[in-house]
Amino acid sequence: MSLIDLIRAETERLGFILCGVAPPSPPAHFRAYEHWIEAGLHAEMAYMATGQARLRREDPGLVLPEAAAILVVAMRYFSPHVIPPGPSNEALGRVAAYAWGEDYHQVIPPRLEELVLQLEKVLGQPVRHRIYSDTGPILEHDLAQQAGLGWTGKNTCTISPRQGSYFLIGEVFLDAPVEPTQALRQFCSN
């Protein structure tokens, strides 16, 4: 069994529905991000326009200089088609589906830490890593496409041909020698 097969089996055990590996190379949509910032579309999110944030989005290798691979995973979130009734059998209101249930910032990183521990056991050595789940200056949808999870839709969501778009993304920058998986081509032109 190859290393990527072992990683896929472990990510499935941990509750992830998709898994792939991207190289730590510049993202295809960085220029679009730069134009978005220059147009002021980041509103009050000034942290998105800082020099350090822009540099790391342009070159993911700056996140962990010794990174040889970026593992990208996806975890399904609550279905927006099933809204549980409130105490009086009325719908509770409209809240984004990904916000229902536990905070993914608290769910995804511990599972990725567990994945790294398993990877260290298999490799027989420590693995330097950095974990993100919508928590750092990276273009995670570009990474998801490079890793073969899906492509970026016009709505900026990653769309998987097998799983749709109702999922959250997590990344692990690894210094482990994991071969990149096949990237998916872009189906939606922006």
Description of the molecule:
The structure is a single chain. The protein has 190 residues and is of the alpha+beta class. It has a domain at 3-25 and 66-80 and 91-174. 29% of the residues lie in helices and 15% in strands. The chain has five helices and six strands. The protein has helices spanning 3-13, 30-38, 51-58, 104-123, 140-146; strands at 18-22, 69-76, 129-132, 151-152, 158-159, 167-174. The chain has a four-stranded antiparallel beta sheet with strand order 1-2-6-3, sandwiched between helices. The chain has a two-stranded antiparallel sheet with strand order 4-5. The longest helix is centred in the middle third of the chain and has 20 residues, at 104-123.
Task: Give the arrangement of secondary structure elements.
Elements (H helix, E strand, L loop, with lengths): L2 H11 L4 E5 L7 H9 L12 H8 L10 E8 L27 H20 L5 E4 L7 H7 L4 E2 L5 E2 L7 E8 L16
Antiparallel strand pairs: 1-2, 2-6, 3-6, 4-5
**What's the count of strands?**
6
Q: For the largest beta sheet, what order do the strands appear in spatially? A: 1-2-6-3
Which outline best applies? Answer: globular
Largest sheet: 4 strands, antiparallel
The helix-and-strand class reads: alpha+beta
Q: How large is the count of helical segments? A: 5
- Contiguous uncertain segments of 5+ residues: none
Strand-residue proportion: 15-25%
Q: Give the overall pLDDT as a whole number.
A: 88
